[in-house]
Write the structure tokens for this entry.
Amino acid sequence: MQDQHEKLASLADPQRSALLVVDVQRYFTRERPEPLYPPVDEVLGQLRHFIDECRSRGLLVVRIQAVVPEEATAGVWRRHWGERWASPSPLAPHQPGVESHPGFEPQPGDLVVTKPRYSSFHGSSLEALLRSRGIQTVLVGGLTTDVCVSSTSRDAFQLEFDVITLSDCTATGTQARHEVGLVTLAGTFGMVCSSTDVLATWDAQPVSVIAS
């Protein structure tokens, strides 16, 4: 079996990889009453550093934004959430909750994809955008580990993308849920490792020199 470094080197070719930054929005970082684990400030600091490193290496960065308009909450969504989901929808367009967490606003060259449900692929243009750019591997981070990040990683795997979920770049409602979510992803839906492991693998790659 390949060790982690060899597997990462084979999967995470910067020219064929994209970073999916999932739902780093005010609703998840500032409006929810419960804290996130691991501590969200630490996680977001790690993710912001990794985004900068990806951009410096030419990786495609895709900012995923959850937008759930009021009409999209009818039916099963409302029957499940009931009064726990406020009306109007806190993730409706133009609500403060949909805004990017400070420091995570899209930058020039980034793609922005909106989605109405947990998975970044459901009801969105994400798959077509990735295919059109020759992307084979997606690196996934953001919020939350066991819901939107997990749903995105699972769907990516089932759509024949290679998946690397970044263990140190995501958080959720409890530490136990975070850890169990990552164990499930690692066992069934691709690879799970830290962003520092990915960066170490990239740094270890030989640099191509073009002869003059």
